[in-house]
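Researcher: I'm preparing a figure for a lab meeting and need a structural model of a single chain. I don't have an experimental structure, so a prediction will have to do for now. The sequence is pasted below. Please return the structure as tokens so I can convert it later.
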Amino acid sequence: MDVVVFVMVVIFTAIVLRSIRIVKEYDRAVVFRLGRVIGVKGPGIILLWPIIDTMTKVSLRVITVEIQPQDVITKDNVTIKISAVVYFKVVDPVKSVVNVNDYYYAIEQLAQTTLRSVCGQAELDKLLSEREKMNSEIQEILDKHSDEWGVKVTLVELKQIDLPQDMQRAMARQAEAERDRRAKVISAEGEYQAAQKLREAAEIISQYPQALQLRYLQTLNEISAKNNTTTILPIPLDLLSAIGKKQ
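Model: Understood. Here is the structure written out token by token.
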């Protein structure tokens, strides 16, 4: 009799221990009873009926998926390789278990096809200059399709865009030509502004001849400040003009 009781106690203890589950704070347990979903439990300690209850744990943390480089032909017929990173998390554990076999794999494949589709409809200049816009467009498409899987795509970032060597050399020549153009424009604008200032100065001197004499004396002062052996004798311009008239 004692042996029977002991065996029953052991069996009961094993059943109780098997029925106890611990769900972590960042996990949720989708519980099935006889194959049907009865709800989501956790976090903490939960009890399951032996044999008739089963559960599937689902993590609610943000998951990162790195999209391997994809060969893409842009709208202007340039072949490039683009890699990206997708951040998502489960917001509905039941849908993530019931509606899709493997939501991680599904998101990864959907991200690859969407990346090729969206980037293939854009020109190379747009991909390089409007990354934020491309990221938002890809995220919107992924989030729309993954909603029925109980998954929320929080962020998409284009990680790297690899260009062919000949395209890199062409873009380098284009950038160099653009810098030369800007340098010439800036130089021309400087000459134009200097000419305007000289014209204004000439107009002032023509109205006030004394200003020319003051400028002449200022120049002599600047020359004499330097250490040199040059001797300068200022001759009034009126004197030279008078000599010319006498001749």
